[in-house]
Write a structure and sequence with these properties.
- By secondary structure, the chain is of the alpha+beta class.
- The protein is built from four helices and 14 strands.
- The strands form four sheets. The chain has a six-stranded antiparallel sheet with strand order 9-13-12-11-10-14, with no helix packed on it.
- The longest helix is centred in the first third of the chain and has 14 residues, at about 5-20.
- The protein starts with 5 loop residues before the first helix and ends in a 20-residue tail after the last strand.
Length: about 210
């Protein structure tokens, strides 16, 4: 059996890469759907595999026997976000606890880059957030300043406080964050109003 020279192998790799769709080569954020209560284990496994990932958490107070304890809980239960090029997806799918990458018709769908990066920046900056029932209708606004700048969401009133609801339509999940009303502006400020995007009634998964 003849050996393949390094140069020939390099040329073949370039040819194979050129034949792949751009989405398979470009690193994007995807949602990995996990087994129940396996979010932290999946995040650990992705770390072992040197895969960039993001598991947003929040503090929840629970009663435990005769005392109360504060726990770090997943902000989006059942999901861990991972950044990868699709040609590397097997490295994620083979991690214990990963069920699939969320998408449609068997193809993983990338999440909006700006939404994930803004969430990362906001939580790192100490923005308070907690899960909220999935919400798509209401008074819409955009964050104009601060770590969440650029994010669009829905305003709700609760106990004399205004809360800003951010929804990830791909996974049909929402979170509520506390922001200063002065940091918000109407979503359509400065541009011609257009209808909101169509949201399907149920999650489309790969």
């Amino acid at each position: 059996m003849s050996a393949i020279s390094p140069i020939a192998g390099l040329e073949r790799d370039k040819t194979e890469r050129a034949a792949l769709p751009a989405a398979y080569l470009e690193e994007r954020w995807y949602a990995a759907y996990t087994s129940a209560n396996h979010e932290k284990r999946v995040a650990e496994q992705l770390g072992v595999r040197a895969m960039e990932h993001f598991l947003p958490v929040y503090e929840s107070e629970r009663r435990w026997k005769d005392r109360r304890v504060r726990l770090q809980m997943p902000l989006f239960p059942g999901y861990v976000f991972v950044r990868l090029a699709l040609r590397e997806r097997l490295r994620v799918l083979q991690a214990p606890g990963v069920a699939r990458l969320v998408g449609c018709n068997g193809v993983p769908t990338a999440l909006p880059e700006e939404e994930i990066e803004a969430l990362k920046a906001g939580l790192a900056d100490g923005v308070c957030a907690e899960p909220h029932p999935y919400l798509t209708t209401g008074r819409r606004a955009r964050v104009k300043t601060g770590p969440l700048a650029g994010l669009e969401g829905i305003l709700v009133r609760r106990k004399n406080r205004t809360r800003f609801i951010i929804s990830l339509d791909l996974i049909l999940r929402s979170v509520a964050v506390e922001v200063d009303v002065a940091d918000l502006e109407p979503e359509w400020a400065g541009k011609t109003p257009t209808p909101p995007p169509v949201v399907f009634a149920k999650e489309c998964r790969s």
